[in-house]
Backbone:
C-alpha cells in the first residue's frame, strides 16, 4: 500500500507540474467502487474549467484545492498512483503501473488534461482506492479522523513517550492505526521498529522510555529521508530492512535470520534477537 512518502511524492509532482493551471478536459471511469459518492459524469462536469490552486496531503490522503469547492480527494488504497504524462513520479513498489505502458493508462480512474496540454491521471488496478468530491475534505472522514501527520505533525518526544505508556496494544498494530499517527503503513512500521530494535508484538506500554525515544527518532528520520528522495527506494540506505522485506524470502541480515510474523493483521519481517525479544515480551 502506498504510504506517506509515496503520496507526498505524488503531491509534490502535482504541485510542481499542475498547480496554477486550468482543467480543460476530464474523463472519469464508470467505477462506483472507486468513484465514491459522486457519479462519473458529475465529477467530470465539476472539474472541467476549474484551476488547480494547490495539492494537499494528510497521512495517505491527497486532495486538490481548486479555485472553488468542491475538491477532489484521493485515498490511494493498495495500488493507487498519480501519473503525469512524461514525468517520472515515484510509484509504490508493487504498483501495476509501468513507464512503458500506453497512455492513457489502462487502469485510469480519473484522467485530466490541463490548459497547457499537461495530462495526468489517477490509476488503480485493484480498486481499493477511493476518489471523492468534497466541499471540505479535512472536515469529513476519513481525513477528519486521522491522527497527527507523521511528517508534518509528529508530536514532541515527551508527549509521544507518555502516549505509548497508555497503550495496551502491540506496538506495530498501534503504528498502523491511522487515528494514532497518520501516514505510517506496513513498510515504514517495519523499518522504524527494526531500526529502533523493537519487536512488533511488544506491548506499547511495556516499552522503556529509551525505546520510545528511539522509536520517535526513527520515525522522524526514516520518513524524512524517504520524502527527501521522493520515495525512490533505490536511494534508501543499503542497510535498511526495506530492501529485504518483500516476497517473504528466507535470508539473513547482519548475520541474523529474517523472521515473518503477523502483527496488526499484517505480515512483518524483522531481524530478531530472540533472547532479547522474549525478555521484552514477558515484561
Residues:
Amino acid at each position: 500500500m502506498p504510504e506517506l512518502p509515496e503520496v507526498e511524492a505524488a503531491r509534490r509532482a502535482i504541485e510542481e507540474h499542475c498547480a496554477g493551471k486550468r482543467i480543460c478536459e476530464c474523463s472519469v471511469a464508470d467505477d462506483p467502487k472507486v468513484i465514491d459518492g459522486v457519479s462519473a459524469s458529475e465529477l467530470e462536469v465539476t472539474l472541467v474549467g476549474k484551476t488547480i490552486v494547490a495539492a494537499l496531503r494528510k497521512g495517505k490522503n491527497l486532495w486538490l484545492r481548486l479555485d472553488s469547492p468542491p475538491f477532489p480527494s484521493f485515498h490511494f488504497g493498495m495500488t493507487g498512483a498519480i501519473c503525469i504524462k512524461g514525468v517520472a513520479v515515484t510509484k509504490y513498489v508493487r504498483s501495476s503501473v509501468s513507464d512503458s505502458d500506453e497512455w492513457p493508462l489502462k487502469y485510469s480512474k480519473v484522467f485530466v488534461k490541463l490548459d497547457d496540454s499537461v495530462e495526468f491521471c489517477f490509476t488503480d488496478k485493484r480498486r481499493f482506492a477511493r476518489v471523492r468530491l468534497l466541499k471540505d475534505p479535512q472536515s469529513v472522514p476519513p481525513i477528519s479522523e486521522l491522527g497527527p501527520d507523521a511528517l508534518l505533525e509528529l508530536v514532541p518526544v515527551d508527549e509521544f513517550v507518555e502516549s505509548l505508556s497508555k497503550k495496551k496494544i502491540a506496538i506495530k498494530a498501534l503504528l498502523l492505526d491511522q487515528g494514532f499517527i497518520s501516514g505510517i503503513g506496513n513498510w515504514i512500521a517495519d523499518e522504524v521498529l527494526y531500526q529502533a530494535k523493537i519487536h512488533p508484538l511488544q506491548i506499547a506500554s511495556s516499552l522503556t522510555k529509551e525505546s520510545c525515544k528511539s522509536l520517535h527518532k526513527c520515525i522522524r528520520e526514516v520518513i524524512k529521508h524517504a520524502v527527501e528522495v521522493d520515495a525512490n527506494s533505490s536511494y534508501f540506505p543499503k542497510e535498511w530492512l526495506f530492501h529485504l522485506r518483500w516476497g517473504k524470502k528466507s535470508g539473513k541480515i547482519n548475520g541474523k535470520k529474517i523472521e515473518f510474523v503477523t502483527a496488526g493483521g499484517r505480515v512483518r519481517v524483522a531481524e530478531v534477537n530472540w533472547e532479547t525479544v522474549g525478555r521484552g515480551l514477558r515484561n
Notes: The chain has a mean pLDDT of 89. Residues 120 and 259 are 40 Å apart (CA to CA).
